[in-house]
Amino acid sequence: MQSWPFLVLLFSFFLIFDSILCHTRAPLSFLVISKILTDRYKGFTAAQLKEIRDVQKEQEIEMTARKAGASDEVAAYGADLRTQAKAVYLMEREAHRQRSAAKMSQVEENKVLAAEKIARGAPVKNEIDSSFYSQFQTSCR
What we know:
Blueprint: H1 4-21, H2 46-120, H3 130-134
């Protein structure tokens, strides 16, 4: 197991990285991720610290505006969903009303037809006579 070259490489990387972190020039104080870590650098002047704080305030304002815009979009999306759900509910209610009205008109029509049938003197009960039984076993295929 020869892991010592890896350890030497790792140790040299930390030495180089530490020298970048402790460097006092402003351009080297920004890492690759472009984020200022004010607690890890030494030797900033008051003007540099003021500039850093101003940039951080601007970033905070931008972040607040971005969050407000995102929350506005979410609220608008929710309002759209509620509006659509209400429209669907109203359409379903209207369809139910129409079905109920059609059913009630059918019931009324059936009542009228039943009253006419009774008025004509039609038999209320079907009676089975010999003509019913005579139709069986009279044909073949």
